[in-house]
Amino acid sequence: MDILGKALMDYHNRSYTEEIITHSSLDEEDVLPLPYMFREYKQMPVLEQVALNHCKGEILDVGCGAGSHSLYLQKNGFNVTGLDKSPGAISVCKQRGILKTINKDFLGIEKMQFDTLLFLMNGIGIAGKLKNLDRFLNQIKLVLRPEGQVLLDSSDILYMFKADDDGGYWIPDDLSYYGEVTFKMTYKNEESEPFEWLYVDFNTLSRAANFNGMACELIKEGEHSDYLARLTFK
């Protein structure tokens, strides 16, 4: 069920009547405003703007969604390819004028290499669980050219858990890592299957990168426990 793709197509085709609602294992319900998915550069968070300004060479925009980042880069002369496993998202990207798209899961990319891999809007979250991060980093090493870079943003969501008087946090026993969250999306009375999503703090990301032979650099910290990082080969 391509709920994201259906919603993006509705908005693009001017059939916009409601938002996507997300439900998480953190007992939170939130709204994913569809207009936000079609934002221009000046409407993007600072971390995203900084990431776009650090792009170089041939770029793969992983989890491109409606293609706002790809479109900005393409308009500024970059050779960019938008990748998303949502057929609806890729259809919208094409209709918006993005010249190169791939409708595939990132792990399915073969025999292609890029100078910049872009994982924005917590794009590394597609790893799902911390134990899967090594697999994703190994895939990154296959797709990234020797002098290339990975630009990604994520968040340390420890603040979302209850703190005790000693400065510690109450983490549920069934979580191997507190950044592992399960989501569902609903849109126009349709509900997605549950899917896993990973928020990874910078120190954990840095350790995983180093274990896999990559350097991890903190480019910029955000105002809400979020950050922008760059991965390169050592």
Helices and strands: which structural class? Answer: alpha/beta
First-to-last CA distance: 40 Å
**Given this structure, which CATH class is correct?**
Alpha Beta
Shape: globular
Strand content: 25-35%
Q: Which ranges are low-confidence, i.e. pLDDT below 50, for 5 or more consecutive residues?
A: none
Element order: H for helix, E for strand: HEEHEHEHEEHEEEEHEE
CATH superfamily: Vaccinia Virus protein VP39
Domain Methyltransferase: 59-148
Protein name: Class I SAM-dependent methyltransferase
GO molecular function: methyltransferase activity
InterPro entries: Methyltransf_25 (IPR041698), SAM-dependent_MTases_sf (IPR029063)
Q: What can you tell me about this protein's structure?
A:
There is one protein chain. The protein has 234 residues and is an alpha/beta fold. The chain has one domain: Vaccinia Virus protein VP39 (Rossmann fold), CATH 3.40.50.150. It is 24% helix and 29% strand. The chain is built from 6 helices and 12 strands. The chain has a 7-stranded mixed sheet with strand order 5-4-3-6-7-12-11, sandwiched between helices. Strands 1, 2, 8, 9 and 10 form a 5-stranded antiparallel sheet that branches. A hairpin with a 4-residue loop joins strand 11 and strand 12. The protein starts with a helix and ends with a strand. It is an enzyme of class 2 (transferase). Residues 59-148 form the Methyltransferase domain. It comes from Maribacter cobaltidurans. GO terms for molecular function: methyltransferase activity. This is Class I SAM-dependent methyltransferase.
